[in-house]
Amino acid sequence: MAEPPQREAPDLTRAVDRYARAWTDAATMRAQDLPILEHQKVALRDAGAALDVDRPWATLDLLTALEHEPATYKAMTQMHGRERTAQLVEGIAHEARVRQVPELKAARLVKIWNRLEAEREGLRG
């Protein structure tokens, strides 16, 4: 008999949602070429700290997922509510696996290498 899918702890989903709202506020300011306001910086820092309490390294994992996983970036920038939170939690979990599983880490490095090679070729041509 298959196990039911694991549900994330309510504290983690709240922390992810809080971080997403703070990140979005800061991104809106950056997109308008405006400085991030002090209270926005504090909100982002505090939300990241709360996220790391619920799951160590979660903030770093989320930021890495935003950089390398288009689905996570799309969730952060185009989704809202529970759907966004669920996708971001999955992005965090995926990045934790990338850190821990050598094959996934190697695949990520190859992906980065290929992107850098393509950029280099573009600069040459």
UniProtKB/TrEMBL annotation:
Recorded superkingdom: Bacteria
Source organism of the structure: Candidatus Burkholderia verschuerenii
Protein name stated in the entry: Conjugal transfer protein TraA
